[in-house]
Structures are given as C-alpha cells and as structure tokens.
Write a structure and sequence with these properties.
Blueprint lengths: L5 E9 L11 E4 L2 E3 L2 E3 L3 E5 L4 E8 L6 E7 L5 E7 L12 E9 L2 E2 L4 E6 L4 E4 L3 E2 L5 E7 L9 E5 L6 E9 L2 E4 L7 E2 L3 E9 L5 E6 L3 E7 L2 E7 L2 E8 L1
Parallel strand pairs: 1-8, 9-23
Antiparallel strand pairs: 1-5, 2-3, 2-6, 4-5, 6-7, 9-10, 9-20, 11-19, 11-21, 12-14, 12-19, 13-18, 14-17, 15-16, 15-19, 16-17, 21-22
Length: 241
C-alpha cells in the first residue's frame, strides 16, 4: 500500500467577501504546472513535495491570479491561505468599493513591485494585552465579529504606525493567536491586525482592487504605509512614497 505524505495545504479565500473560494484552480509551482487535490472549502492539497521554497501561482475563474511563496518543511506540512482578488467575470454588488492605485516615487511610477493591501474586513482583531513583546510566539487577541471569515492561517499586518509588521497567524485558539514565527518588534494593546494580501504593480505602477464594504485601507510598500478611506463606487488614488 502506497502512503503519501501531505506536504502543503492552502485555502483559497475570496478577498471581497472573506469566504472560501471554490472551483477548478489552475496552479504552477516554480513555473511548472501542478495538479493539487481540490477539497471542499477552497482547499488545495499537495503531497510528497521535497522540502524547500516554491513560488506558487493560482488562477481561478472570476479572480486575479494569486502569487505566493511557500516553504515546505523537512517534517510536517506547510499550511496557509491565499486571498484572491476579484477579476474578470466577478459579480459585484452595488456596495462595492472599486479602487485604482497609482504608486509613484519622485516622478517615476513604482513598476512591477510587490505591495500589500491591508483591511480589517467584517471581523476585527486587536491585541488584548498590555504589550506583545519582541520574540513572542503567541498573542492574546480580542475578536469582534465572525472569526470564521478570518483567513487563518494567513498573513496579517500589525497596524503599528511607527513599526508596522507583517505576521503569519498560524491558528486561533479561543483568545490566543499562535504565530508561525516570533514577533520582530514589540506592539502595544489595541493595535489592529489587518488582513493582508500581496499584489504586484503593473509596468505603469497601477493596482486595481475591490472591497465589499466601506472602511479603511492600508497600503504597505517596503516599511512605509499609506492609509485611505474606502467609499462605495470607483476611486482613483495616487500614492507618493
């Protein structure tokens, strides 16, 4: 009997609604076509992958292609989530906030660069302890809303104005968030954890995105952030870094 080892498990989620994104996904690993097992709930499962780093792309009808680097360990498995942004064929509602961003540095567009779009979504997470110390591997968190809509495991931005930090939230256990890696900096009570999705600017420095409700958006580029309020309808914003 042949036994296969689960190497990686990825959940696809709709960045517009926060729910699992299901369908026949087309994937590549390091540029080569890959056929993971497709499971209910938006899960993709890979087996018997050699340990190491893989550049993963995922294409699903109605969404923009998602890009992610995964690290398959020698033992155990890699587990995470990918937020897929609406694309051609996606059905929006009238309350959608549609955004076109133009990123510039000086007089030049910031072309082909990775940035992070960070929002609180319908469910809000905040640090619920006086200080989350540098090196901490878990956080006490306050959750307001439906935690089932949170992309956990997944990437979040600690919205700390002076020291924003991307973290990997591996699990939520009651009031505790388990981190995939220790904190690189200390953060105080009340700091918001924002859902973060990576996108790449076009050769013209443009990014298009859509969100389900009005609220606030934080854009992270390198170690710099910019914030804007989201409004229903279409917006065009120029960000100078």
């Amino acid at each position: 009997m042949i036994r296969r080892r689960v190497s990686a498990a990825l959940q696809l989620r709709d960045s517009f609604w926060g729910c699992p994104a299901e369908g026949k996904a087309i994937c590549t690993l390091n540029g080569r076509q890959s056929r993971p097992q497709i499971r209910p709930g938006g899960w993709l499962i890979w087996t018997d992958l050699p340990a190491g780093a893989y550049d993963l792309t995922v294409s699903l009808y109605g969404f923009q292609t998602g890009v992610l680097t995964i690290e398959v360990p020698e033992k155990g498995l890699w587990e995470g989530s990918m937020l897929l942004a609406p694309g051609t064929g996606y059905r929006f509602r009238d309350t959608a906030a549609k955004l076109t961003l133009h990123l510039v540095h000086g007089k030049k567009s910031i072309a082909n660069a990775e940035i992070w779009l960070c929002t609180t979504g319908r469910t809000e997470l905040r640090i619920a302890q006086d200080t989350a110390a540098k090196g901490a591997e878990a956080l006490r968190l306050y959750c307001r809303g439906n935690r089932a809509l949170l992309p956990v495991p997944g990437t979040f931005l600690v919205a700390d104005e002076n020291k924003p930090e991307l973290i990997q939230l591996a699990a939520l256990e009651r009031e505790q968030g388990i981190l995939a890696a220790p904190l690189k900096a200390a953060h105080g009570r009340g700091k918001v954890l924002m859902q973060a999705q990576p996108v790449r600017t076009s050769p013209d420095g443009l990014v298009q995105a859509a969100f389900a409700a009005e609220g606030n958006l934080t854009v992270l580029y390198g170690k710099k952030t910019r914030q804007i309020p989201l409004e229903a309808g279409e917006q065009e914003i120029i960000f100078k870094f």
